[in-house]
């Protein structure tokens, strides 16, 4: 959006800083999304939207050598549960300087169990013709490698930076770390720990 003098409104600038959730799926990314929404951000969560189509748009921009968010709604301020973005955090840091990055984590065994149950649900839905995705195979060895590789690369890249937060929402769902990172006042309401009722069988999403 352009102002009357022809300049671009900072809130609409395509390359303005964003907030990127770069944790893997099943690390309370839904809670992250809800928290950012409460804080006033326009947040996009791949698991709650048309994830495959969104990821195709991101890959199309990547393959064309364009900024990764080029084909998405430029009003969106925060992103989570989008693997094609999470894995490209270095490129996001270059393309959207001044952004903040949040690595959501949880105990690895709980994470693997949550993923396994997700696959089992997908298989049930596929049998009824209600799932068209590809997350249909339990591969714990591959998942462990994915976890160690991703978290290791994130730690090495963001070590010592004040625009980065690592947090286990399943262990400590609270506003403080987020608001300190983003320079915001803490809301009066409770932190939105989504799917709290599932904690005994794997925890929040």
Q: CATH superfamily assignment?
A: P-loop containing nucleotide triphosphate hydrolases
Gyration radius (Cα, Å) is 17 Å
CA(first)-CA(last) distance: 35 Å
Number of domains: 1
Number of helices: 7
Number of distinct beta strands: 5
CATH architecture: 3-Layer(aba) Sandwich
| Inertia-based shape | globular
Main sheet characteristics: 5 strands, parallel
Helices and strands, with pairings:
Elements lengths: L18 E3 L7 H10 L4 E3 L5 H13 L14 E3 L2 H4 L2 H7 L4 E5 L3 H20 L12 H19 L5 E4 L8 H7 L23
Parallel strand pairs: 1-3, 1-4, 2-3, 4-5
Description:
The chain has one domain (19-107, 147-201): Rossmann fold (3-Layer(aba) Sandwich). It has helices at 29-38, 51-63, 83-86, 89-95, 108-127, 140-158, 176-182; strands at 19-21, 43-45, 78-80, 100-104, 164-167. A 5-stranded parallel sheet has the order 2-3-1-4-5, sandwiched between helices. By secondary structure, it is α/β, with parallel strands linked by helices. The protein contains 7 helices and 5 strands; from the N terminus they run βαβαβααβααβα.
Structure, briefly:
This protein is α/β, with parallel strands linked by helices. It is 39% helix and 9% strand. The protein is built from seven helices and five strands, in the order E-H-E-H-E-H-H-E-H-H-E-H.
